[in-house]
Amino acid sequence: MPDMKLFSGNAIPKLAQRVANRLYTSLGQATVGRFSDGEVSVQINENVRGDDIFIIQSTCTPTNDNLMELVVMIDSLRRASAGRITAVIPYFGYARQDRRVRSARVPITAKVVADFLSSVGVDRVLTVDLHAEQIQGFFDVPVDNVFGSPVLIEDMLQQNLANPIVVSPDIGGVVRARAIAKLLNDTDMAIIDKRRPKANVSQVMHIIGDVAARDCILVDDMIDTAGTLCKAAEALKERGAKRVFAYATHPVFSGEAAKNIKNSLVDEVVVCDTIPLSKEIKALNNVRTLTLSGMLAEAIRRISNEESISAMFQH
After folding, report:
1. Known binder of ligand: residue 289?
2. CATH of the domain at 49
3. Is 225 annotated as a binding residue?
4. What residues bind D-ribose 5-phosphate, as annotated (predicted)?
5. What is the DSSP letter of 310?
6. Beta-ladder partners of 27
7. What does DSSP assign to residue 9?
8. What pLDDT digit, counting tens, does each position of 218-269 carry?
9. What domain range is 169 assigned to?
């Protein structure tokens, strides 16, 4: 069996090291930096001929830099005669650009990125909670989309919640919320229906379900500016919610996210370590991070040993 080796770019070095620790190995020797003009510079400093390679790199902010690091690392390893190369992309950037709405003159950038990765010789992709699962079909190579929900649910069960109810922040998140509610001891579910009565009129939030005197668990795949999240928490508290917790896999936290969360009625925001947190977010007392290192390590082990990934999520 070929040797398994892990490599990391500069996007999520701490998560990469945690994964390596879980697998009782060390990260591969590589120099990933920049030339004086800003171009990505990569050199693999050990023999990888015939090895089973896993590159751990989220394509988060700075998105283009991290994507180029990943692509150039794949090319470097391919040219060094690596046996198989799996791109482990915990957070897949550009995933929200997955379709042309009403035939608008816009790109499908998720497809562009998929083609880019395939063109440099990646053999497989492992990612977490893709924003749209159909992105798997954009690739010409196998894609394993694993879920952060088991880690999130394990934490929820430890929180001593009072009569909890799972809340979907929009209609599009109902499937995710229903799945989590089922695993959370078949708890109840509520839905926030956002609508704008007419043009230039403020958006109204209708809550479908009874949240009075209950601990609400808002679930989503990512938190970006946190604007919608904070408005949802306010609406839930107005309807009598006792506490509001927000759980999401990907902490994008762009724009004024830190300010929005600081001034919000959200009791706690719980995210995973697929994206590094900024200093402003780390300074908030109500933001907590869980690690996906154990789950990713197990997925990598299974891929390397040709074992089933789907078996990890069979309940």
Report:
1. no
2. 3.40.50.2020
3. yes
4. 196, 220, 224-228
5. G
6. 6
7. -
8. 999 999 999 989 999 999 999 999 999 999 999 999 999 999 999 999 999 9
9. 150-290
pTM: 0.94
Same domain membership, residue 154 and residue 143: no
Phi and psi at residue 162, to the nearest 5° = -95, 110
- Percent of the chain that is helix, strand, coil (3-state, to 5): 35, 25, 40
301-308 contact pairs (CB < 8 A, 24+): 301/23, 303/54, 303/86, 303/124, 303/126, 303/144, 304/4, 304/52, 304/54
Rounded to whole angstroms, the Cα distance separating 88 from 91 reads 9
Q: Is 63 marked as binding a ligand?
A: no
Establish whether 228 is an annotated binding residue.
Answer: yes
Residue 272: strand pairing partners: 290
Q: Where are the alpha helices (DSSP H) in 108-242?
A: 109-119, 149-156, 174-183, 227-238
| C-alpha–C-alpha distance, residues 257 and 133, integer Å | 26
Is 196 a known ligand-binding residue? yes
Nearest to 241 by CA among 153, 152, 166: 166
Q: Where are the alpha helices (DSSP H) in 172-278?
A: 174-183, 227-238, 257-262
In Å, what is the CA distance from 29 to each residue of 45, 77, 216, 259? 5, 12, 46, 39
Question: Per the structure, how many domains does the chain have?
Answer: 2
65 and 186 co-located in one domain: no
Q: What is the dihedral of CA 60, 66, 71, 73, to 10 degrees?
A: -120
Q: What is the pLDDT of residues 108-161, one digit of tens each?
A: 999 999 999 999 999 999 999 999 889 999 999 999 999 999 999 999 999 999
- The DSSP H or E segment spanning 46 is none
Pair of tokens at residue 55: 């590159």
Same domain assignment for residues 158 and 142: no
Residues taking part in catalysis:
194
pLDDT at 71 over 70: yes
Flag whether 61 is marked binding: no
